[in-house]
Design brief:
By secondary structure, this protein is mainly β. About 0% of the residues lie in helices and about 50% in strands. The N and C termini lie far apart (about 50 Å).
């Protein structure tokens, strides 16, 4: 087997609903779109965030497994994923995460469920490998790989190889007479740095002299400054195995991925469900599920997307053929966004269902301060002033608008008032929150002020997420 490979990332993007938030500059006219990991905190202080975050992606490398769903901490991060697919990296809190892998659409039939510990500021690939069934040569399990995403240098490429072929013995990998990997067995991985260029990788049975018979060859092109994951997958003898999945070599770029088919560098985006009369929803970005079965009030984690235009589609959960919104969102390289699915579904909507695109400011606030962003997403609420302890934090924020302000760290009672010139209108709702020094937060005002008169019994509430900072 020989074939030409231009190495590029495989793109099924997904997210985990975990806590997050964003920051800003004090005006109230930011109308962008973003995504965040959400914990609902209507009248309580925001949920404590863990000490830092890790970056995790998942690869489906089990040659006889059906399409799978992958859940992290109960949230779908990959949905209906076929063999050979690797997700983009997503950001999750450090610590022990519960990973569950199920046949696609069958959440009650887990083929794996267990804990995976991830450390802050570290990148991981979780490879679903091995075989399903009682007669497996290699038991189905996730192989947790720590990815070296440091810069290899402009003229050098780094290749990290995982052996995930259940019926293949240990292998040597050579190129042009040089041994790149020596004696890699199933489940083992290795790393090598080579000059950028074109190579023919020869896969050989392991021998002391690294001169065993070549069982497969693959032509690859390696770019300088790039990090790659190579997965040796499938069966060497598919006719004798439980699936007709031939041996292959799959590649995905590492965390430093900046060259994508969409072109350019990456942006970070997250999605929030803030439509009070919409059912649970699925959210698709460029045709791939980014959120699944998400209830009102939830905000996702950030995910990496190539800069440029992306198609966002929102559907009722489990009904991919019924779009309640579909449109393009433009993302700039190096920027962070929150995309809030807001408004109402139905013909009698006061505010049409649509995404509000927010540009996030997650830069560090001043010493001893926290940054808070307020987003008005309540369809029946007028413009509001938000005060705390006699001070006006936000002035005249109308539906669909948002703004940032910085305050000293501490505890606050946020009072929502109908907008008046003196910011002294009647208090219609109040919420106690605690903000930490260095933290950046987003507070979504959602639901209905008068739910008895509206299409859903979803009362006015405040959903606070922490977007950045104050991690320890």
């Amino acid at each position: 087997m020989t074939r030409r490979r231009v190495l590029s990332g495989v793109g099924t993007t997904a997210t985990v609903a975990l806590a997050g938030c964003a920051g800003g500059n004090g005006d109230n006219t930011d109308d962008g779109m973003g995504t965040d990991t959400g914990t609902e905190t209507p009248t309580e202080t925001p949920t404590d965030t863990p000490a830092g975050t890790a970056r995790v992606r998942v690869a489906h490398l089990s040659p006889d497994a059906p399409n799978v769903d992958v859940l992290v901490d109960g949230n779908a991060v990959l949905e209906d994923v076929p063999f050979g697919t690797t997700s983009d990296y997503l950001e999750v809190p450090s610590g022990e995460r519960t990973v569950e892998i199920t046949p696609a659409g069958d959440r009650d039939a887990a083929v794996f469920s267990g804990g995976v510990t991830v450390e802050a500021d570290t990148a991981y690939t979780v490879a679903a490998a091995g075989e399903v069934g009682d007669d497996a040569d290699q038991a189905f399990e996730p192989i947790v790989l720590t990815d070296d995403t440091s810069d290899p240098g402009d003229e050098t490429a780094r290749v990290q190889l995982l052996h995930a072929s259940p019926d293949a013995p240990a292998v040597d990998v050579t190129a042009g007479g040089d041994t790149l990997f020596d004696g890699v067995g199933f489940g083992a991985d290795g790393s090598v740095e080579v000059p950028a260029g074109e190579y023919t990788l020869d896969i050989r049975g392991d021998t002391e002299g690294n001169d065993g018979d070549v069982v497969a060859s693959f032509d690859v092109s390696l770019d300088g400054g790039e990090v790659y994951r190579a997965f040796a997958v499938g069966y060497l003898t598919p006719d004798d195995d439980p699936a007709d999945t031939a041996f292959d070599l799959l590649f995905a770029r590492g965390e430093t991925m900046t060259d994508t088919e969409a072109g350019g560098e990456t942006a970070r985006a997250r999605i929030a469900h803030m439509s009070p009369n919409a059912p649970d929803v699925d959210v698709y970005v460029d045709g791939s599920a980014a959120l699944e079965g998400v209830p009102f009030g939830t905000t996702s984690a950030y995910l990496d997307l190539a800069s440029g235009d992306h198609t966002v589609r929102i559907t009722p959960a489990g009904d991919a053929d019924t779009s309640v919104f579909e449109g393009d969102v433009s993302l700039s390289a190096g920027s962070e966004y929150t995309i809030a699915a807001a408004g109402e579904v139905g013909d009698d909507a006061d505010q049409a269902f649509e995404p509000i695109v927010l540009t996030d400011d997650n830069s560090a606030p001043g010493d001893g301060a926290a940054r808070i962003r307020a987003v008005h997403a309540s369809p029946d609420a007028p413009a509001v002033d938000i005060t705390a302890g006699g001070d006006t934090l936000f002035d005249g924020v109308a539906y669909g608008q948002s703004g940032y302000t910085e305050v000293p760290a501490g505890e606050y009672t946020l009072e929502f008032r109908g907008d008046t010139e003196a910011n002294d209108g009647d208090v219609v709702a109040s919420f106690d929150v605690t903000v930490e020094a260095g933290g950046v937060y987003t507070a979504f005002a959602g639901g209905y002020l008068s739910p008895d008169d509206e299409p859903a019994d979803t009362a006015f509430d405040l959903f606070v997420t922490q977007d950045a900072g104050a991690m320890g």
